[in-house]
Amino acid sequence: MIIPALDLLNGRVVRLQQGDYARTTIFEADPVKKILDAAAQGAQFIHLVDLEGARAPEKRQLALIAQIVRSSPLPVETGGGIRSDFDVKNLLDLGVERVVVGSCAVTKPDMVAAWLCRFGPERFTLALDVRLEDGVPYVATHGWLETSKLTLDRALRHFLPYGIEHVLVTDISRDGMLSGANNALYQELSRRYHGLDIIASGGISSTDDIRAVLKAGASSVVLGRALLEGRFTVEEALRCSQNA
Length: 244
Hints:
TIM Barrel, eight-stranded parallel barrel, 37% helix
């Protein structure tokens, strides 16, 4: 699946380089119009990142998210600073299809496991952002500001018994850099975790990159900056994914 992504900061569509708020690019784009255009081209799902919520959960852009969900013909997943039952229920009540959980999966894994049991694993995407150290992917937290001592493999194995279905894995060193995806990482994940929906994110700048990451084993691809910059269209991305 090709999943267009929109990062939202102060109500505007932006992109960060490697998660750094000091390196923000603002795009003069209306999020609802971008979603309607993506839907017209054949997209089936939308990924929203609430950067305000990621930085300060009390500043979550709920009104904007609610407006987008109401206006979107496509199901929406969103996250950013999800810390409590209230956060999860609030987003689901707004009509969000899947809640994206990141840092809490590392800092409070038992609480996240309880969410999977309570709301259903199909209502969540586990977002694990990683930094490679000596070739080993370690999970980063708090908007990529900190790197934990938890390996990606250990994190995934903790949640498998709870039925997690969707896992978004981003190599931080690639994100926003348009340097190609970490295909070796996705190939290894596909080999180890056959039943998971492995969602690739970070570094994709061309349809060749899309084709390569899908051949490596990712089942879905989140696309942000490359679409916003017009390097290719959603329609072109979908066409090449069908031939991957």
